[in-house]
Design goal:
Elements (H helix, E strand, L loop, with lengths): L2 E7 L4 H13 L4 E5 L7 H6 L4 H6 L1 E3 L2 H4 L5 E5 L11 E2 H10 L4 E6 L8 H5 L3 E4 L11 H16 L13 H4 L5 H17 L10 H16 L3 H19 L5
Parallel strand pairs: 1-2, 1-6, 2-3, 4-6, 4-7, 5-7
């Protein structure tokens, strides 16, 4: 099965955490991650996680989103609000197809708190936005309902006639080719130093360096960065830094 984590960010209700755990198990997903949650091992959570007690108890708890998705290659933010600073990249079915088409990647599906969802800063930590189509009359979906819809969409896509779950498993060597979010973050820090060496800096009315870094971050997240790509980028930036500092002859 695809390597996929369900990440609940600041969930406020133990019942929703339990219901999400049960929804995940319905479709064969077992990696639940909680960011700054309420107490989740309560009688209410166990009631809603009927049959998925093991998954609820094995849920990993993190203090921040970067920690929760650090070992993932691709993080998807689920939100219904698409505004100026939000990137409406995919509908749910498109996201499921993307996941099925990239079985070598390690995915994280992020869902926000029940009352507010994911905020802009949290969305920016992800590689793309996914929306679940709903009626305009009442578009808001319960947290656990969103999780079950997402899990079903991915499961169904892997079980279409042309592609089954077994066929979706990529060879181990290919799964390890894509670097994690942690390594991408370090690559962006390295790129920031190179941009400074090239005298790219933010101005009060034009945050040029920040814009460039954000664009590269999104590019790396969408396309993925393989280990050999990382080595190429590191070599290239080392060369640029050397020339810019005068240590290497142009």
């Amino acid at each position: 099965m695809i390597d996929l984590s369900i990440v609940l960010v600041s969930p406020q209700g133990a019942a929703n955490i339990g219901a999400a755990a049960r929804a995940m198990k319905n479709f064969g997903f077992c990696d639940m991650r909680l960011v700054d949650p309420v107490e989740h091992l309560t009688s209410e959570a166990y009631t809603w996680a009927l049959g998925a007690k093991d998954l609820l108890e094995s849920a990993k708890v993190f203090s921040s989103i970067p920690e929760a998705v650090g070992d993932r290659n691709h993080a998807m933010a689920f939100t219904r609000r698409i505004g100026k600073s939000r990137r409406g990249d995919m509908l749910l079915d498109e996201a499921a197809l993307f996941i099925r088409s990239n079985p070598e990647k390690r995915f994280a599906l992020l869902f926000g708190r029940e009352d507010k969802g994911l905020n802009n800063d949290q969305v920016e930590m992800c590689d793309c936005v996914v929306t679940i189509p709903t009626s305009e009359m009442f578009p808001s979906i319960n947290l656990a309902q969103s999780v079950i819809l997402a899990c079903h969409a991915v499961y169904a896509k892997f079980n279409e006639n042309t592609v089954n779950v077994a066929a979706g498993a990529a060879p181990e060597y290919l799964r390890n080719e894509y670097i994690s979010h942690d390594k991408i973050a370090k690559l962006i820090v390295r790129l920031e130093k190179t941009l400074s060496a090239l005298q790219y800096e933010d101005e009060p009315d034009n945050p040029l360096k920040t814009k460039i870094l954000n664009q590269f971050s999104r590019l790396f997240g969408r396309a993925g960065v393989m280990q050999r790509d990382l080595q190429m980028f590191e070599g290239l930036m080392a060369r640029i830094d050397g020339v810019a500092s005068g240590k290497l002859v142009k």
